[in-house]
Specification:
heterodimer, A: about 150 residues, mainly beta, three-stranded antiparallel sheet, 1 helix, B: about 375 residues, alpha/beta, Peroxisomal Thiolase, Chain A, domain 1, nine-stranded mixed sheet, two-stranded antiparallel sheet, 15 helices, globular
Chain lengths: ~150, ~375
């Protein structure tokens, strides 16, 4: 498809605005847990789902997950990928160095949590490895507290 | 279904950058289609426009398209998901008995106007994933690819085989945006690694594109074309957004959608009955993964099927003879383009991409991270 003959006037339109979301108490409790280096999940009364991060509604059962449970600090690496690129604001560019992202199934959870995995070479990582949480010091009650996982 | 509904005509355009405007693309597609069929806009009873407001950078973006789409003072509505869903919506309008013709127009300027990766970033949960900043479309697909390869013990080489076949098919197809001459498995394997095991040529390219299709009731279809392609079945299904709760190596929602579509079409053995499949596989591994969910491939046999050429244009079960989404993925138009490619096969108009026997086809479209929502259509002649 060649370019059409006429010239197209091209305009750059930046967008700059803020959304204010109400999230509910479950994430508040999850992040409050981080202040004590605890990882909380929510348990469905209808099925065996223990979701982390916790959320209120179970899609399978259409029920409220009322119970919060504390999960282990250790878990199993269920799946992983080694990143060679980063995507920021929709732009893909090479990463400074390869890095590992994994889906970790914590003890007591039925769902997996996406996290960075560090402390080993990307060539050594294997599905099924036991890993443990590494916390940022000091913890502040935000998402960054649960910094990464490393092999047990 | 109570009435028979046919695809009677189509137009499509696709390129890395179409150097156009939304309005011009819409006009060229719809006016071109009207001229192909010898109709005017007043012959169209209802119109469904499919585009994405986030990609368009404006809300209810169809409000700007009444002049180019010919919908001034007409019956018109909008779909924001993959346009396979818009086709289902349009088909249902004809099935209602209120309409005899329905125009579907899908468009996306994702090659030039805005990044497709940005679009996916904004489908993620703003209060979790976008805060944690780890998940994106490609690493999610990489996790799915890893899970799929692991489950059946396939080597990463399978991805190269799949992509090489798709890209070779795309190179033959003038409708595709990414046409690489002399594409080979080695070229695929040498392309840049994104997230293991996915390399650049295992992933869809950012693409501009648009597609227009006219559907008609049986009576009207026979007036408008000698080559109607009938919509025999349709179904859609969605699964959970949460990746950590899904078995990524399979697509349960595609299987559910296919079950509904096959039931309507009276298909009991898809692997035997279906002649050709056009599947919205945005990443190489999704082609066999979704083909399994569509009942076309046996689990655990994908590597053999690709090695033996079963899935090639001249194979027993051609998958994406058009080249599929690895040849181009204008976000939200792709499923509709797959449908048009399947219709071209059934009409014997697919040129160098033509498969030998094409009487019954299955078409698939997807939305969301790792194909969360899926739509399936069965087409026949």
């Amino acid at each position: 498809m060649g370019a059409p003959e006429e010239t197209y006037f091209a305009t750059v339109v930046p967008m700059d605005f803020t959304y204010n979301y109400r999230v509910g108490p479950y994430i508040t409790r999850y992040l409050d847990g981080f202040k004590e280096k605890k990882i909380l999940g929510s348990k469905c009364p209808g099925c065996s789902l223990v979701a982390v991060p916790p959320r209120k509604f179970c899609g399978v059962c259409s029920k409220v997950m009322e119970e919060m449970v504390e999960l282990g600090q250790e878990g199993t690496l269920e799946n992983f990928t080694v990143g060679h690129v980063v995507i920021e604001k929709g732009k893909l560019s090479p990463a400074d160095a390869p890095y590992i992202l994994g889906l970790v199934k914590l003890e007591g959870a039925t769902s997996s949590l996406l996290a960075k995995v560090e402390g080993l070479s990307p060539t050594e990582v294997k599905t099924g490895m036991k890993v443990k949480a590494v916390w940022k010091e000091p913890v502040e009650g935000d998402y960054g507290d649960l910094d990464h996982f490393e092999p047990v | 279904m109570d009435r028979n509904v046919a695809i009677v005509g189509y137009r499509m355009q696709s390129a890395p950058d179409l150097v156009t405007s939304r309005e011009r693309l819409t006009f060229e597609l719809t006016r071109g289609l009207f001229d192909d069929l010898g109709i005017e806009r007043t012959d169209v009873d209802t119109t469904i426009i499919d585009s994405n407001d986030f990609m368009d950078g404006r809300t209810i973006s169809n409000v700007f398209l009444d002049p180019p789409a010919g919908v001034y003072m007409r019956d018109e509505s909008k779909v924001e998901m993959d346009a396979a869903n818009a086709v289902i919506y349009a088909c249902m309008r004809i099935l209602s008995g209120q309409y005899n013709t329905a125009l579907v127009v899908g468009l996306a300027l994702t090659g030039y106007q805005a990044s497709p990766y940005l679009y996916i970033e904004y489908t993620l949960n703003p209060t979790y994933e976008r805060q944690v900043k780890l998940l994106n479309e490609i690493n999610a697909a990489a996790l799915q690819a890893h899970s799929y390869l692991d489950k059946s013990g396939y080597s990463n080489e399978l991805l190269d085989d799949i992509a090489a076949q798709a890209l070779a098919n795309a190179a033959l197809n003038p409708n595709q945006a990414r046409r690489i001459s002399g594409i080979s498995k080695d070229k695929v394997a040498a392309s840049a690694m994104y997230y293991e095991p996915l390399r650049e040529l295992h992933c869809y390219p950012p693409t501009d594109g648009g597609c227009a299709v006219l559907l008609a009731s049986e009576e009207k279809a026979k007036e408008l074309t000698d080559k109607p392609v009938w919509i025999k079945g349709m179904g859609m299904s969605t699964e959970t957004y949460y990746l950590g709760e899904r078995k990524l190596y399979k697509s349960r929602s595609t299987a559910e959608a296919a079950k509904r579509a096959y039931e309507l079409a009276g298909i009991k053995k898809p692997e035997k009955d279906i002649d050709v499949a056009e599947i919205s596989a945005l990443f190489a591994h999704q082609e066999p993964l979704l083909a399994e969910a569509l009942g076309l491939l046996d689990e655990g046999k994908a590597d053999k099927a690709y090695k033996d050429g079963v899935t090639a244009i001249d194979g027993k079960l051609p998958l994406n003879p058009s080249g599929g989404a690895l040849g181009g993925h204008p976000v939200s138009v792709t499923g509709m383009m797959r449908m048009v490619e399947a219709a071209r096969q059934l009409r014997g108009e697919a040129g160098d991409n033509q498969v030998k026997k094409a009487e019954l086809a299955v078409v698939h479209g997807q939305d969301g991270v790792c194909a969360q929502q899926n739509a399936v259509l069965v087409l026949g002649i």
